[in-house]
Design a protein that fits this description.
Distance between the termini: 121 Å
CATH architecture of the largest domain: 2-Layer Sandwich
Strand content: 15-25%
CATH class of the largest domain: Alpha Beta
Number of strands: 23
Radius of gyration: 37 Å
CATH topology of the largest domain: Heat Shock Protein 90
Shape: elongated
Helix content: 25-40%
Largest sheet: 9 strands, mixed
Number of helices: 18
Strand order of the largest sheet: 1-6-5-4-7-3-2-8-9
Length: 634
Amino acid sequence: MAVLDEQGQIQIHTENIFPIIKKAVYSGHEVFLRELVSNGVDAISKRRMAAMAGDCSEGDDGAITIHVDREAKTLTISDNGIGMTSDEVKRYINQVAFSSAEDFLEKYKQEDDAIIGHFGLGFYSSFMVADRVELITQSAKPDQESVCWSCDGSPNFNLSGAERSEPGTDVVLHLMEEEMEYLEPARIRTLINTYCDFMSVPVQLEGETINKMEAPWRKSSRDLSDQDYIDLYNYLYPFQGDPLLWVHLNTDYPYNLQGILFFPKQTGRADWEKGEIKLYCNQVFVSDSIKEVVPRYLLPLRGVIDSPDIPLNVSRSALQTDRRVRSIGNFVAKKVSDRLRSLKKDDPKAYAEAWDSLAPFVKIGAMEDEKFADQVSELILFGTTTNPNEPEGDDPIAANGKSFTTLEGYRSRLSEENSKRILYSTDDVSQAGALNLWTAQGAEVLKLETVIDTQFIPWLEYRHEELKFQRVDAELDESLKEEDPELADQDGTTDSERLRSLIKDALNNEKVTVQVQALKAEGAPPAMILLPEQMRRLNDMGALMEQRLPGLPDHHVLLVNRRHPLVEGLLKLQSGSVLVGNSESSPTLNLSENLARHLYDMARLGVGGLEPNELAGFQTRSAELMGTLMQRGL
């Protein structure tokens, strides 16, 4: 048999393919290892299939071996796969000669089949780190010579005979001086753990298998225990605690996709732009940014999606959006909603306990995706003031010392006359006065989160046009006020009118509307701020657009409770003219006027309406006022 000795030139129309590969195709040099190991795994798989068909020898169990030679400055990736004949080397390695470099890249961008496992461009990624590459291969087919292909990164190659005793392929990289980091075993281990950890073939370095090999998401959910899921989560996301729950994905039509998605416990940090789900293609890590695949509202989920049918660009570093990708996104969203529905049905308490962490995904998803909104409409929970220790049947749901209900559950408990009004609060502290007034009269109030619900409440109103959402401090129902008519004095003026005139004069602020009412509830505050619903929403929206916290709107209502002892005392002082201390800022204000201002300041303080620079003045005025009252024996 003649000895093979051939030289030639890779026929390309541009001066060199390699600068294009380095600059235009791959964004990071380290992926060369992923490409070469993937080729080796593919070669092992091909040998198994060919052996089953009787076309080649079966050989030992497949393995990828990585060898570091510091002295020679070489990195070798070896496999015991199907190998190549000299004709196959010409066809696969020199396929760049079939077209210009630009046409070659365009061809693979449009190709439907996965690039993974193809010798060609993946193999040429080795020139990002090596100034010379040797490929020594022995075909597993009978009666074939070993072949050595070598190239120095120019269009010139050399093809000659070689000596390799067993079928398979060695790729020997003569590393560039600036790429010596890949001679460090620790660096190699890190890259294998990142890109090749779940490949089904062992990857060995220094006599040790360094990849996990087993991909749990490729198994049936029936074969995995809860601990298996938790162990995978803790391996992928160390030091993050255990997940709340998980969703196992598995379909082979109309595309092939497996995966496991985890709901993390709420940490206050969520990446709504990039995400933390890892994308794999045939167990090879591709990317941790899959915003083109998963709907934005699910990006903060964690876990793995593995599919050979997701179209990638030629370097597998980015996704190409098409109808299949959108279909996959819809499939993932549907599986997530199915999992949440089954949890709520089978274990409503566990669902309620996890709701605080689930709420952002569900609410944002509902607002952004109408189909998802229909799927989760019955799964949205709200905190409620109903006693959590005395739930009525399945709704409300008691969990974590709180009570949760659905919108329909809440509506089922409303009286017919109030069936269209949904009362809610967003802050138990700043809205405590109004909240207590409503609950004291037996009203049920929904408890919402301020950040998301600024947008979620108007969205709910859009979907339920018949409903009106009203925050507890927007206005007070007539049922909260005393019905007895007031008696007027000889001038025809009532106590409420005198109080309103006094307070309005004391405040001297036309933007504050003063109302005086007699409130029923015991413990009702002497004064409180009311914020009309639409006015407050406009204020909140302006704050959101300006990226600031919403403050107290300039225009608001001061409601004064004339049944409170402090207000009743103010009426008695109204005709007096006692000066308050030695205040230089307002020496002519009498005691009643200062009490009126104090009522307003306390109401503002209750809703966080006092600016930090106003607190010192409030404390000073309060001290002076208390001192005067003590001196007067009041």
